[in-house]
Design a protein that fits this description.
By secondary structure, this protein is α/β, with parallel strands linked by helices. It has two domains: 210 residues, FAD/NAD(P)-binding domain (3-Layer(bba) Sandwich), CATH 3.50.50; 176 residues, Polyamine Oxidase, Chain A, domain 2. The strands form six sheets. Strands 8-7-18-19-20-17-21 form a seven-stranded mixed beta sheet, with helices on both faces. A five-stranded parallel beta sheet has the order 10-2-1-14-23, covered by helices on one side. A hairpin with a 5-residue loop joins strand 18 and strand 19. Helix 1 runs parallel beside helix 12 and helix 8 crosses helix 11. The longest helix has 18 residues. The two termini are 43 Å apart.
Length: 449
């Protein structure tokens, strides 16, 4: 699946650092074993930080609100097929820290090919490959230059519609805007017209997890002290001993790393005493939080094309317009995964399973005929109303400045630290960004000794 294909790749050497330290012998004689660290959140960022700090000799404990580790890395296996509710792909395997981590963790992967695709218009009209490719080339040319004609106070949608009014109602262009922009960033009417292409990407092929992305979380969590179902409500950092309130219990720590998603911070689910610095509060407000919901459907038989991806171009943008064929990497799965983005993604969270299935099947019937069978099962996500996330991942909204990501990563008084994909200016919105942020904050604490 293409992700920020128009961005420059950066060499892995720019990120060179060891993943783990073995034992930390402080030059000033302070023993890390005498220092306690509480990590809030057992997502990829929190687990990466906790693992590195524990291996450096610190006393580390992790508090997780959910009943399992992983955060937004969640895999549902209830249908016998690993359904990754959050992260699914390693986006560019060259130099990506997730590549090596996946190998260590035993995560199996499959290289997905963007070229293995068929595109259908309404009425089941199969689109010519040349038509699709030509429009796609033009689309990426526009993405590569449009930011020069935008402004800080204008959204992507407003600038695009002004510059290319003839494309507003073109169904193929709606598909590109939805699947190649909204999916990777956020709502087009809120997305910055100057920063929509910010961030970096790794080179190399794209690989999707075939036995569950949560294998990474399980691996990182080994031998860590993790308390599940512990919802942190308050952090008091007025004194040297930080007070963390969770489930009506107070735990003290010398250092705290907050790794909760940006959506949780936006919804003021953590009470900080004193209040967070103004710059950090502004960053929380200004950076956007996207909604991408995923849907897995299974059948007793396969009726669709033997390709990796099936695109459909309905009149309504962001609505079940992209299908991933799981049969390509899980033989005989008889399963498709599809998506809903932005406002339509949020709207699905108020819909019943039957309503969602009807809407998805309407698109499939238009492509493959009304006689196709009904699905046997449906799995789905509701990320915008999930109290542990309130969204899928961060993006550069109108009003966002790139320094806001750095403001979110700033530690306070060398005792309160922040990690998560929303704190990585180069790799926000990605699992590898979350991982790198955890390593970064662990390194900060180690450097203090």
């Amino acid at each position: 699946m293409k992700r920020r294909i128009f961005l420059k790749s950066i060499p892995a050497s720019l990120l060179a650092s060891s993943y783990w330290t073995t034992a930390c012998q402080a030059e000033n004689g302070i023993n890390p074993a005498d220092k306690t660290v509480v990590v809030i959140g057992a997502g990829i960022a929190g687990l990466a930080a906790a693992k590195k700090l524990q291996e450096a000799g610190f006393k580390v404990s992790v508090l997780e609100a959910q009943d399992k580790v992983g955060g937004r890395v969640r895999t549902n296996r209830s249908l016998g097929i690993p359904f990754d509710e959050g992260a699914s792909w390693i986006h560019g395997i060259d130099g990506n820290p997730i590549t090596a981590l996946a190998q260590e963790a035993g995560m199996t992967t499959f290289q997905t090919l963007d070229e293995s695709m068929k595109s259908y218009d309404i009425g089941g009209a199969l689109r010519k490959t040349s038509t699709y490719d030509s429009a796609e080339d033009e689309f990426y040319n526009i993405l590569g230059s449009m930011m020069k004609r935008g402004s800080n106070d204008q959204s992507f949608a407003s600038v695009f519609n002004r510059l290319y009014p003839e494309k507003q109602n073109d169904r193929l262009w709606k598909f590109f805007l939805s699947t190649y922009v909204t999916f990777d960033t956020g709502d087009l009417d809120k997305l910055s017209s100057t920063l929509y292409n910010e961030g970096e990407e790794y080179g190399g092929v794209e690989k999707i997890a075939t036995n569950g992305y949560d294998t990474l979380a399980t691996y990182l969590a080994k031998n860590l002290s993790i308390s599940l179902n512990q919802r942190v409500s308050a952090i008091d950092y007025r004194t040297s001993a930080i007070q963390i309130t969770h489930n009506n219990t107070v735990t003290q720590a010398d250092f705290v790393i907050v790794t909760v998603p940006l959506g949780v911070l936006k919804n003021n689910k953590l009470l900080f005493t004193p209040n967070l610095p103004a710059a950090k509060q502004t960053a929380i407000q200004k950076i956007g939080m996207n909604c991408v919901n995923k849907f897995l459907l299974t059948w007793n038989t396969t009726f669709w094309d033997d390709v990796q991806y099936i695109s459909y171009t309905p009149e309504v943008r962001d609505k079940f317009n992209y299908f991933v064929n799981l049969n390509k990497f899980i033989p005989s799965a008889h399963a498709l995964m599809t998506f809903a983005y932005a406002d339509y993604g949020r709207a699905t969270e108020t819909m019943t399973d039957a309503q969602v299935t009807t809407e998805i099947m309407a698109h499939l019937k238009d492509m493959y005929g009304t006689s196709i069978p009904a699905p046997t099962r449906l799995l789905r996500t509701r990320w915008s109303t999930n109290e542990n996330a309130f969204g899928a991942y961060s993006y550069t909204a109108v009003g966002t400045e790139m320094r806001h990501f750095e403001d979110l990563s700033e530690e306070i008084d060398n005792k309160l630290f922040f990690a998560g994909e929303h704190t990585e200016a180069d790799y926000f919105s990605t699992a590898h960004g979350a991982y790198l942020s955890g390593i970064r904050e662990a390194d900060k604490i180690i450097a203090l000794l």
